[in-house]
Amino acid sequence: MYYLGVSYSMAVENKNILFKKLESKDAIPFDLLLLADPSIDLIAEYLKVSELFVATDGQEILGVIVLFPLTGETIEIKNIAVRTKLQRQGIGSILINNAIRLASQSKIKNIFIGTADTSIAQLSLYQKLGFRISGIKEDFFLTNYDRPIYENGIQAKHMVTLIKTL
Ligand code: ACO
Description:
Shape: globular
Bound molecules: acetyl coenzyme *A
Low-confidence stretches: 1-5
Order of helices and strands: EEHHEEEHEHEHEEE
């Protein structure tokens, strides 16, 4: 994919949000990435081959989305996160819709995303944006993370995978 230089601006809640690829000179927003994935090792591993996009308002990074080339025709959203105080204002939807828009302009045919079986809000968001559940990676969060992850009072075990066909 050739996303370099892509930027797209839109207004939300008095913000002028710019969606753009993070430039190599910019610091990687690990604080945001860790909201979606508590493993710094896994993040570092997939960042090596992924493209990282951000939603900004001026100098402030509001949210981040990481696109990983899974196959020639499929990308995976490896990580999506919005600054905690700004969640539930539509920024996550903006990040995903822009990823869909960019992928639609390339030869990508499918967008894949995986989340924990405990991620009720995320599962709702992804399905609202047209992703459909495609499978379960059993015990993913038990075998890939060195400590238990709890969400909504439940321990995360399996990864629920979803696909959107473009
Ligand atoms: N409770 C219930 N539903 C929610 C919630 C919530 N806390 N947050 C989002 N949703 C759902 C709702 O359906 C909502 O629509 P509605 O507001 O009309 O009811 C819909 O998502 C749209 O929400 P947005 O405002 O667009 O999403 P937001 O900007 O909050 O971003 C995100 C969503 C990225 C999941 C954000 O909440 C976040 O950063 N969470 C922490 C990190 C995380 O869990 N990331 C995803 C992990 S999986 C992965 O990275 C592949």
